Structure formats: C-alpha cells, structure tokens
Amino acid sequence: MATIIDGKHYAERLRAEIGRQVVQLREAHLVTPGLAVILVGEDPASQVYVRNKARQAREATMASFEYRLPHGVPQEKLLELIERLNADPAVHGILVQLPLPPQVDAERVINAIRPDKDIDGFHPVNVGSLATGGDGTVPCTPLGCMMLLKHHLGDLSGLRALVLGRSNIVGKPMATLLLRENCTVTIAHSKTVGLDEECRRADILIAAVGRPRMVPGDWIKPGATVIDVGINRIEENGKARLVGDVDFDSAVATAGAITPVPGGVGPMTIACLLLNTLEAACRQHG
Ligand code: GUN
Q: Which residues bind NADP(+) (predicted)?
C-alpha cells in the first residue's frame, strides 16, 4: 500500500512558518504583506478558492483585499483596477482568478500586472525567468507539488518524470521545475500515443488534466510517486464529491506514495500563494 502524502498537514506547517515570518517582517521593516484577489463573475468553484485564499492570507496576518466584479465587466474596468493595485504600496501581490469571461482577454490582463506583484508567476517576465533558471516567481501549484516531492523523495536527480497535461498554469512550469531538479521529463497530453506505456515508465507521475479518475492503477509503475493535481467535482450515488485525475482506490495498491484529493496538492497551492506574497513583499521593501 502506498504512503499517503499529507499535503494538508504539510501546508498547515508551511502556513504557520509564513505567519511567523510575516510578524518578523512587520517588526523589522513596518511592512505588512498585502494580497489583492480579483474575482470576475460568480463561478461557484472560483468563489470557494478566492474565499479560501483571502481567509488564509488573513490568518497569516497579511492584509487581504478582495475585489468582486460582475461577469459582464468591461475589460477596461478590470485593467483600471489592476493599474490602481500596481501603484498601491499596500499591495504586494495581485491575483486575478482564472478562468475569465469571454469578453476579457486573459493574456492582456496577465500582462498588465506588474511582474514583481505577479504572485501567480503567469506574467511572461516570470515565465521567462523560470525557463532560463532565474529567480522570478514560480506558479503556486507546481511549486507546491515540488515541495511535496522533495519532502517525500529528497534528491530527484535521474528520476523519470511524466507530466500529464501541458497547461501554462501547471503542466509546463511543472516540467521545467522537474528538469531543474535533473529529472528526465516527458510531457504527455491528449494527442500522446501510448499514454499507458508512458505512464508505466515514470518514477514520478504528475496528473494535471482535469479528467476524473483518468489514470487507473495499472498505468502506474510499482513504487512510483504520484502527485494528483486534479480537483474534479462529480456526482456518485446521488452525492457530490471531489476526485482527482488518478483513480485513487486502484492507484494506492501500486504506487509507492500518492497525494489524496482533497487534502493533497490543493492546500499546498494556497500556502505557496502566501509564500509568493511574502517574498514579493520582502523584495519590494528589500
Ligand atoms: N485558477 C485555477 N488555478 C489558478 C491559479 O493558480 N491562479 C489563478 N489566478 N487562477 C487559477
């Protein structure tokens, strides 16, 4: 049976440490890290994420600013708000919750955020920094996955890693981080031929495709470390529940270690958002 990687517990410890550093920063430099979160529209899942991000920022004694804009908001209004937050010295990190409604060009919005306040690590300056080994902001979910992997495995050098999914938010930055740790990295996606065989070769399997229970246990190399990024809402036996991209019940018999859903990667993403906000505040007042 696989070891269950307890992301919830790890994230709680990380948030407690961040909280201590926030207090130290305030005492030493009279600065309180400030996180601004913008939600456009009423998507229920996004509302839950944004509420949790703001609440956990407050629990770490950061300043938290929440902006809720209607679904039909013109792009110019959103860009104006970002300009205002870019210039606000109390705001060190700006997060625009994705996805955005169709009248808004997400790329323009991301590009409008000051790179040093882009605590998502989505701005091209930060994407380029990650690709070239710089010290820009790293996207929160891949950063959280990497912390869990290193905590569990230690040195990742030479291990074969398969990243299932090629999104800008998770798949691509995840692959870059694994490469940085000297893994041999494959990125698989919807057009990959022989996906089951690709998965069976992997010592580390990162599933980030958003398809419930897509990876069955018999695709997993015995003893492999499985990081399940999927958060899929399904209905089962008349009840709503969350499941990952990996079929947990069959995978747990083959894998060496696996993250559960919920309680695995999800809590780490928010903890890393707070970490990125703290680091942004330190840099802006360095
Ligand atoms: N939507 C889903 N994941 C994310 C994330 O990491 N950041 C933002 N801004 N939106 C998201």
A: 165-167, 231
CA of 270 to the centre of ligand 1 (A): 10
pLDDT at 198: 98
**In sequence order, what are the residues at sequence separation of 6 or more whose Cβ sits closer than 8 angstroms to the Cβ of residue 24?**
none
The model scores a pTM over 0.95: yes
**What is the model's pLDDT at position 19?**
98
Distance CA 153, CA 129 (A): 26
Which of the following is catalytic: 56, 97, 117, 228? 97
Q: How far is CA 7 from CA 37, 85, 258, 266, 268, in A?
A: 23, 32, 10, 8, 6
Known catalytic membership, residue 77: no
- Residue with tokens 């990687």, as numbered in its chain: 5
Active site residue 203: no
User: What is the position in ligand 1's atom list of the atom closest to the CA of 170?
Assistant: 6
List of the chain residues with pLDDT < 50:
none
Q: How far is CA 9 from CA 204, 210, 251, 268, 274, in A?
A: 21, 24, 21, 9, 16
> What pLDDT score does 227 carry?
99
Ligand 1 geometric centre to CA of 79 (Å): 18
Domains and CATH numbers, the chain: 30-115 (3.40.50.10860), 140-266 (3.40.50.720)
pLDDT on residue 28: 93
pLDDT at residue number 137: 98
